Amino acid sequence: MTNISSSEAFLILGKWKENRAQLQISFAGEGKFAGTPAVIMDTSPNDETVRTSIVASGQTAEWRCSFRGASFEYGEPAESALFPEFAEGKWSSYLFVKMPDDKTVLFAERFVAEDSGDM
């Protein structure tokens, strides 16, 4: 994993928004991560905010968060399999956001196989 700046993190988040990337957002709590499928709806690098569509309690919901004062780490499973599930080929990249209150948010981009067009 590599420490990156806020501007680099927002470039990644912006790319995921443009591509409508299939993400898993996980929130750290009591040493464990609980995750939900998500799509980034909007980013604001100037305000350092992100707005996502998530699934909460089986319903689609909006989650908005300020990352002002947060630190960021980016990685790809081939570089460092932080969790065993990252080594299984399900994820293509991930972004850790450590909030000023020491809470952690993990964005994991799901690996999507390209359609080869073979029949």
Pick out its properties.
about 120 residues, mainly beta, PH-domain like, eight-stranded antiparallel beta sheet, 8 strands, disordered C terminus
Largest sheet: 8 strands, antiparallel
- Tell me the strand percentage band: over 45%
Rg, rounded, reads: 14 Å
According to CATH, the fold-level topology is PH-domain like
Stretches where pLDDT falls below 50 for ≥5 residues? 115-119
Specify the overall morphology. globular
Structural class: mainly beta
Overall pLDDT: 83
Walk across the major sheet and give the strand order. 1-6-7-8-2-3-4-5
What is the CATH architecture assignment? Roll
Q: Considering DSSP H and I runs of 4 or more, what fraction of the residues is helical? A: 10-25%
Describe the structure.
The chain has a single domain (2-110), classed as PH-domain like, CATH 2.30.29. 12% of the residues lie in helices and 50% in strands. The protein has 1 helix and 8 strands, in the order E-H-E-E-E-E-E-E-E. The chain has an 8-stranded antiparallel β-sheet.
What's the quick description here?
The protein is mainly beta. The protein is built from 1 helix and 8 strands, in the order βαβββββββ.
Task: Walk me through the topology.
Elements: E1 2-4, H1 6-19, E2 23-29, E3 32-44, E4 49-56, E5 59-66, E6 71-75, E7 91-98, E8 104-110
Antiparallel strand pairs: 1-6, 2-3, 2-8, 3-4, 4-5, 6-7, 7-8
